[in-house]
Amino acid sequence: MSTLVDKDKEEVTEYFNNNGFERWNKIYSESDEVNDVQRDIRTGHGQTIDKVLRWVEEDGSAKSVFCDAGCGVGSLSIPLARLGAKVASSDISAAMTGEAEERAKAELGRDAKRISFTTSDLENLTGSYDTVLCIDVMIHYPTEKMSDMVSKLCSMSKNRVILSFAPDTWYYSLLKKIGELFPGPSKTTRAYLHTEEAVRKALAAEGFAIKRTEMTSTNFYYSRMLEAVRE
Ligand code: SAM
After folding, report:
1. Which of 140, 141, 165 gets mutated to test ligand 1 (max ligand atoms within 8 A of its CB)?
2. Where are the domains of the chain?
């Protein structure tokens, strides 16, 4: 693993255990203590979550075994468990998994036991799952590490991988550059965009074919989502 990647991971872990946790825990909730940008990101992220749940309901795959890698505060794991799924949820940040566990207990009661929570970097995960989910995590992965990350996700999947990323197109690159020129108080960790072509290539190299795609964009949130199934 290169020094750059180690440094990125340290930064991400530190961020999501401290300021990032405070910030994202509010965004991923119904709290009124958010600004307009954060509210917009909440809306966009909510749409992405709804799209995953719709896919799962459409093909009747809810009552299967999922891995939610980089689960955050459980925004996807919890509604999935409510649909009957068994979910192995993990995140690099202990603050995130702690909050996710609290929310699961509060929202699911006895059904919270359908979710197991682990604090772990996704590289160190093990196990085999019907579906591996990785939503809005790839933004923390430098370009040169993206295909290893996709390969790791595929290696844990029996049938399907659903992942999302901020797409590297001229338009979004420009938006990101503008954001970097005016970072303001919401400046977070480094953010990496990925080309769809490179992500598709990484999935194909592991024997996965694209089945469904989605794009969610609001003013400040943009996320391309791919569902890939084992061929
Ligand atoms: N997937 C969740 C969702 O959509 O609600 C959370 C998305 S949040 C933007 C990104 C999450 O990825 C954070 O909780 C962060 O701690 C986690 N993360 C970042 N790098 C990670 C890594 N290498 N392994 C595991 N989790 C990671």
Report:
1. 140
2. 3-230
